[in-house]
Amino acid sequence: MLSESNLNKVEELKKRYPTSQALVLPVLWMIQEQEGYISEESMKYAGTLLGIPFSHILSVVTFYSMLQNKAIGKHHIEVCTNVSCMLRGSGKILEHIEKRLGITVGEISQDKKWMLSEAECLGSCGTAPMLSIEDEYYENLTMEKVDKLIDSLQ
Amino acid sequence: MSLQPANTEKLTTWKRVILPEVPDLHKIDVYRANEGYLALKKALEMKPDEVIDEVKKSNLRGRGGACFPTGLKWSFMPKNSDKPKYLCVNGDESEPGTFKDRQIIEFNPHLLIEGTLIACYAMGITAAYIYMRGEYSKWNKMLQKAIDDAYTNGLIGEKILGTNFSTHITIHRGAGAYICGEESALMNSIEGGRGYPRVRPPFPAQFGLWGCPTTINNVETISNIPIIINNGWEWYSQIGAVKHPGPILVGVSGHVNNPGVFEMPTGEPLLEIIHKWAGGIPGNKGIKAVFPGGSSTMILRGDQLEDIRMDVDSLKAAGSSVGTAGVIVMDSDTDLIQVITRIAEFYYRESCGQCTPCREGTVWMYKILKRFEHYEANLEDIDLLMDIANNIEGNTICALGDAAAWPVQSMIKRFPKEFEKRVRQSRVRLESY
């Protein structure tokens, strides 16, 4: 199920670690980046690929908050609400997004376009408030910036 | 991302060395043109023990939160080991209020790589893993590019700079777990498991990654190594505070006009950092409270900040700690109950669940604090909260338990009136029904 280039990467990485179990996180990342999430079938595949029991793979997937075991919205908006962002108005930003998208934290929009989450500190405290969508950070947020951002992703 | 603004330059005679003002320093050619990788060359001409000795004498202390002497940590690694030895560089940077390591990776990644190589040489290590938090995807890519360039330049890999020294550096990407910044959880995560902290002893230098001798150092700590080797321990040990010397990256966030990461010598007065470096409080309000080193450090009252300096001894004497030097400032209008409830929520979410006091205690602290937040608290809830925090502290495998207890304990101790006021307001609210 992994693409050929990813399988080549796995082979390269094997040289860097003494055990194949160390490749669990790298392989799960590859699957998630390829498929959008990690299905039960993918977990079994990863287990077979690395010679690791499915139960272990499952235990890893369910431990890490960034690994998704079901399909999520096309754009995953994560608003940091930890202290530094809270002090600079992340609560209002989050409320605004909830109203704008018509979903609350933890929900996926009906058209599967948006998913909204609260994030723990993402290391952008000096540029708070902030949110992340996929790999990108959006910092020093204002309501206007948020609106523009959502419009640009429509 | 804004780096140290130019107007802070005149605050100090300190010439930045971790984040120097050199444009495009992240590019390997620019780094090499600015004396980059000369420390590596110098270290490779020294005996490994001499390198460790240099770091020991420099008095460098870890910048990840515990302030442990780095040279001493390195000297715990066995000299003759039939097992391979490993280095983990901790770039998990997840402590609320901390955003310094990502600056190094963005603006000076080769300093980190050079430091990693010198550390490997000093301890006889042939494989290093830089553990990066999953959310730092963009910075992972930046660091990977720098590592690739260093490989192409013959600076990482086999027979580095024509010597017999060989080592590899691999980025290991985390996947969203605060606890993986704890050194033993970090190792379990690299090994491909859940990020559960390990019981110590055995310590990592005896039984670390895959049961082999391992050292774990923070990104900023490792980035100090080339500076020590280049300039010598005498020079380094005279920067800033005597017992905690060197440059330190201080991140200031919250209610300040000019938040950001500032490189300065250790031992700067905390009030000066807030008012001068970070531009003071918006609207000229007073300071109600400060977390000096991330949300896990004990909170300080705004009226006790006089004479407190950013170093290990001064903050310890004040009843707190340097932590990750992530200063979170709260102005006089801040609702501290809301702050501490959010912090308690964080530790409850991030507890790995192994130890009962932490797993159960963090959720109860959060639930009780929610009662305060929603004006539903009784006077007894204050004692109950303190009791739970006291029963978490020191009773868990790792320091997350302490980190969850300290902000709650210090908040009750230093701001009892905030809690009492909430109880009174709760009564008024209930009586109005």
- Runs of chain A in which pLDDT lies below 50 for 5 or more consecutive residues are none
Question: What is the CATH topology classification name of the largest domain in chain B?
Answer: Rossmann fold
In which range does the helix fraction of chain A lie? 40-55%
Would you report the number of β strands of chain A? 4
Question: Averaged pLDDT of chain B, please?
Answer: 96
Number of helices of chain A: 7
Distinct helical segment count of chain B: 17
Which percent band covers the strand fraction of chain B? 5-15%
Q: Find the structural class of chain A using helix and strand composition.
A: alpha+beta
Strand residues, percent of chain A:
5-15%
Do you know the CATH architecture of the largest domain in chain A? Answer: 3-Layer(aba) Sandwich
Please give the share of residues in helix of chain B.
Answer: 40-55%
Written as H for each helix and E for each strand, in order along the chain, the element string of chain B is HHHHEHHEHEHEHHEEEEHEEHEHHHHH
- Based on CA atoms alone, the radius of gyration of chain A comes out at 18 Å
Describe this structure in words.
- Helices cover 45% and strands 12% of the residues of chain A.
- Chain A is built from seven helices and four strands.
- In chain A, helix 2 (24-35) packs antiparallel against helix 3 (40-50) and helix 3 packs across helix 4 (54-61).
- Chain B folds into three domains: 6-237, 3-Layer(aba) Sandwich (Rossmann fold), CATH 3.40.50; 245-331, Ubiquitin-like (UB roll), CATH 3.10.20.600; 336-431, Up-down Bundle (de novo design (two linked rop proteins)).
- In chain B, the strands form three sheets. In chain B, strands 8-7-11-9-10 form a five-stranded mixed β-sheet, with helices on both faces.
- Chain B is globular and about 80 Å long.
- Chain B starts with 27 loop residues before the first helix and ends with a helix.
